[in-house]
Amino acid sequence: MTATVLMVAEKPSIAETIAKAFAGGGAHFRKGKVPVYEYEGNFKGQRALFRVTSVVGHVFSLDFAPQYRGWDKTDPKELFDAPTQKEEANPKAHIVAHLRGEAKGCSHLVLWLDCDREGENICFEVMQCLHFSRSQVLRAHFSSLVPEDLRRSMANLGVPNEDEALAVDARQEIDLKCGVAFTRFQTKFFQGRYGNLDARLISYGPCQTPTLGFTVERHDLIQSFKPEKFWKICPSLSVSDGRVLEPEWERGRVFDQAVATTFLQLLKGGKGAKAEVKSVSRKKESRVRPVPLNTVEMLKLASKQLGMGPHETMQVAERLYTSGYISYPRTETSKYPAGFDTRAVLQEQSRHGYWGDTVREVLASGVGKAKSSGVDAGDHPPITPTACVEEGTLTGSSWRLYDLVARHFIATLMPDASYTKTKVTFVIRPTVEGAGDLGGGEVFTIVGRSDFSPGFTSILPWMAVEMTPLPPNISEGQVFPVNDVALREGSTSPPDYLTESELIDKMEKHGIGTDASIPVHINNILERNYARLETGRKIVPTNLGVVLVHGYHKIDSELVLPKVRAHIEQQIGLVAAGKADYKDVVKHSLDGFESKFKYFVEKIERMNELFEATFSSLASSGKIISKCGDCRRYMRYINLRPQRLYCQACEKTYSVPQNGVVKGGSAELTCPLDGFELVIFSEGGTGKSFPLCPRCYNEPPFEGVPNNAMACIHCPMPKCKSSVHTNGEVQ
């Protein structure tokens, strides 16, 4: 044995799959901080011991240096130039120590992280923990967890891509500094003035806010819409087979009732009005099969067809991928690569109980090529099934999404749907004297569809075309009696609120977010009470969301319009391609946002006017509870999200613990450090209660205690009757 190889995957379940692919049932399992699998095999032509383990997502997270983390100690404008540092993302998991322990004695490192930019970034996080030389580090590139694909990847190891890793670093730093600066300023400004905001944070995000902007843009169109009445003429005709046809007026509709009435009177005058067939056209039409499935299209289809939100869809897709049922679910590519074996995937699905017969027909007739109009983004192949799984083995959302992915794949290799479209044009001529003003009469048309060949819609039935056949013997020159001519009134209607699927489409077209982050941004605006999800998966902005977007427009529309973020994404793409310097892109983006932030702060009263007209002031909210230690006047307890105390005289708010009830304490119970009257917090559910000083809780007087963490039961002050020193132990 001359080599020991450490192999690191992104999740424990993937590490297990990799070990089984190479060792079968012969891998030795060892329980560490995360599982470790060991087996013997060949590496670079020699015998080797393999250790397979994993991280649990990102090893590190980016944050400001400690002196910049306090909301009250740092002016938000300083954050644009503040130093940042990477810290262990999940200290309790001890991933860094685990990796270092497993790396001892290893001669090579093989990285099996997900093959996208985030995965590439995690590769370099793992390398940062360890001290392998670049020549000792190799990268596996794979798109599914099928054993054959994993073995193929092992035989073709490459190297990690530092440019793609730096692109993630760039996005993280830009989003952290911009988002936190605006969020801290907005939150402190508005929560210190209004009581019924119903939001713990008034957050800003370079992607989140344009996402919200799309929903408010549609909301504004709906609110400003003024319905307009229209009229249209609707005849009914009797044809030879006894059916009644109702052709459409070629003029469509008119918005003047007097004009519409004139047409009606001229057509209805006299007896025995006739409709003559002016022309009949027939042509073959097609409904084209879909292109191969990428992430964004999967998110749209899951929302529209399955009623699954994008956040849930990606969680389910990740589980299906790690279980070996579908290929990697994060891809922008919608075109099968030249060497992709579609026949092998079809053969696997030919055993399926639901669509096996259809697949066997496709195989027997010769597998067609998928549409060439898809896009090869150069990342992973499109999303496809990698195993044949029956309903029952998978249930609930997992089954429904697998079913969608499998059906979509099969559909891409089937013929287009086709049908015959027949268009009949009628002329209805009045039979009264003086009708010459109508020229040759009024023209009406009707369209029918027949002779349907389902093609791919037999596997995707929701994409089928509804057949509306016309009588087959209609021909030019035929005349039919007009049963009736009616004048129908209607009103124009506003557009509807954006559905999730439509919002995803807008985000993709405008370059807001990536296939991996789009679900996160949509989820954020819902969780932060900027929008709500209504029936039909429509996204409706709340009052807070509307006021925020309108406020940004009053100060600087570029804060909410998509073009600034789209430009940043373009620059980050250049970093990933090795065509732009990471530091230059970060500096340029932050310099632009810093100038916008300064102007935003200067003009914040423009936004505040909208808040003032929409929300209740703190002075008129809440109830009197305890005295402020600075002014000795009573503060108010705001029992609305977020719960907080407000001193009107000092114009200052104090955070309190959430998910419980705050009550006033005894007037004798005051903090010996600052004179604030203590309040009593009772935890919801547990019933546990403890006192706290509003100032000490927000601005701990002792080093090493984070903000919003210190209650009196943690205080070491000897003179405090409620302190741990007096009571002996932390409750």
TrEMBL record:
Quickly give the catalysed reaction.
ATP-independent breakage of single-stranded DNA, followed by passage and rejoining
For biological process, the GO terms are: DNA recombination; DNA repair; DNA topological change
Q: What is any Pfam family matched here?
A: Zn_ribbon_TOP3B
- Supply the CDD domains for this chain: TOP1Ac (cd00186), TOPRIM_TopoIA_TopoIII (cd03362)
Q: Which keywords fit this entry according to its UniProt record?
A: DNA-binding, Isomerase, Topoisomerase
EC number(s)?
Answer: 5.6.2.1
The record, for SUPFAM superfamilies, names: Prokaryotic type I DNA topoisomerase (SSF56712)
Membrane-spanning parts: none
Q: Name one GO cellular component term.
A: nucleus
InterPro entries in the record? Topo_IA, Topo_IA_2, Topo_IA_AS, Topo_IA_cen, Topo_IA_cen_sub1, Topo_IA_cen_sub2, Topo_IA_cen_sub3, Topo_IA_core_domain
Query: What role does it play?
Result: Introduces a single-strand break via transesterification at a target site in duplex DNA. Releases the supercoiling and torsional tension of DNA introduced during the DNA replication and transcription by transiently cleaving and rejoining one strand of the DNA duplex. The scissile phosphodiester is attacked by the catalytic tyrosine of the enzyme, resulting in the formation of a DNA-(5'-phosphotyrosyl)-enzyme intermediate and the expulsion of a 3'-OH DNA strand.
Q: Which family does it belong to?
A: Belongs to the type IA topoisomerase family.
Question: What is this protein identified as?
Answer: DNA topoisomerase
Organism encoding this protein: Palpitomonas bilix
